Amino acid sequence: MFEELGISGGTAIIVLAALYFIIKSAVKNGIKAAYRDITGKKAVSDVKTEQKLKEAGILDEK
Q1: Is residue 47 part of a domain?
Q2: Does a structural domain hold residue 10?
Q3: Phi-psi bin for 59: left (phi > 0), alpha (psi -120 to 50), beta?
């Protein structure tokens, strides 16, 4: 089947793996955005990430 498309099996696996991770992150970000819209709160993981960035001096405090 892959030969008809002109790609090898290894290339197909790499493309499918990349698609998996892209879709996974898109769904995760969509769920976070919906949670933020519904509750008006940030997700716990977002708060922890911001705290670590502030401690490292990368994120400016507002």
Answers
A1: yes
A2: no
A3: beta
